[in-house]
Structures are given as C-alpha cells and as structure tokens.
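RETRY 2/3 - previous attempt timed out on the joint model. Re-submitting the same 227-residue input unchanged.
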Amino acid sequence: DAKTTQPTSMDCAEGRAANLPCNHSTISGNEYVYWYRQIHSQGPQYIIHGLKNNETNEMASLIITEDRKSSTLILPHATLRDTAVYYCIVRVASVNYGQNFVFGPGTRLSVLP
Amino acid sequence: DADVTQTPRNRITKTGKRIMLECSQTKGHDRMYWYRQDPGLGLQLIYYSFDVKDINKGEISDGYSVSRQAQAKFSLSLESAIPNQTALYFCATSQTGTGSDEQFFGPGTRLTVL
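RETRY 2/3 succeeded.
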C-alpha cells in the first residue's frame, strides 16, 4: 500500500466546513483513496472512497487532485459528533489476497463549540 | 455496529495466561479480520480470513493464533499473554466483490495483561 501523510491534528469550529488533507504522492494508478474515522476508541467507520473523480455521499465529500498525489476530505457542516480520528488510506480495491487496509496514526479532528 | 460483536469487551489477565477473544457477525460477510490498536496509534492487522478455509498472517501475527470456526465466527488467541499485548483489539468483516470493499468493525475488546 502507498504511504499517506496526514496532519497530526486539526481544529474546526462547529457548523463550519472541516477540510482534512492527505498526501499520497506514491499512489499507483489502480489504488483508491479511502477515508475512515474512529470516534473515541470505537471501531473505525467507513466514510467514503474514490479513484480519480470527486465523490460525495451523505457524510462527506472527497476531492482528489488531478495528479492524484493528494486529496481532501470535506465535512461540510461539522458538528461536535464529528470529533474523531480520521484515517486516509490508499489501497487497491479488488478481490485479490493481501489487499488490506493499513491504518496510520490519522488526523485527530476536534470540532469546537 | 451490532452486526459485529466481540466478547469479552474488557479483559484483565496475567502474564503467561492463554486468552481467547471472540468475534461473531450476522452480516453474512465472507471476510473477517483481527486488528490491534495501541494508544495513540493506528490499527495494525494481525490475521485475516477470506473464507472458512483461508487464514492469512497480517503485519503482527507473532504471539497470536486464530480460528475460523464458521463463516460467522473468527476467534483470536494469545497462547501466552505478555504485557506488550495490552491493547484494544478490533474484529472487522467485509464482503468479497462489493464496490466499496468497506470493512465493518466491531466495538473492540480492551485487553490488559499484567
């Protein structure tokens, strides 16, 4: 799996957009960008994933640069319940053996009232 | 997520004891995983299983063993627990062939080895 780099921590005001960056300069052409989050020692929760195009779902938006070397997860209206550690992961999305998620330390997002 | 359950949720044990952590799922998924998380760090993969007859080592399998008793059950054993195995342990499941390849995590087991 390609290595990712994320800031250790970020703050965001409640109600504002939270923009979480991730660098993955060595990403391969068939590797997807995944985002998970972990709220206070609970099991991680899937947020979103994408390959090249920007993606949006009910939780967040994922913006991937044209060269795919970096991406940004956007929580459009952060709430206190979004306070969590956010993990950016790159990996091949396939049925092949050995293609597993590698969770780094992530970004600790604190949403402030 | 109530679809993936782990027992026990908390366990305190002594060095040298054998410990088994159990994971059950009602999601019907074929793939199951065991991760450990040390304080302030990300998750590390211990073992994974893509079906009942398939067991694979992850990054940190030394000192651990697993058993896939059925599609819905995946157990993790510490044959002789040591203090540096004190950690939060997560089980996860996923289904082959889904577009997102999303993994669903259990609530975790907090293990303390004295």
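Chain A has a mean pLDDT of 90. Closing ticket.
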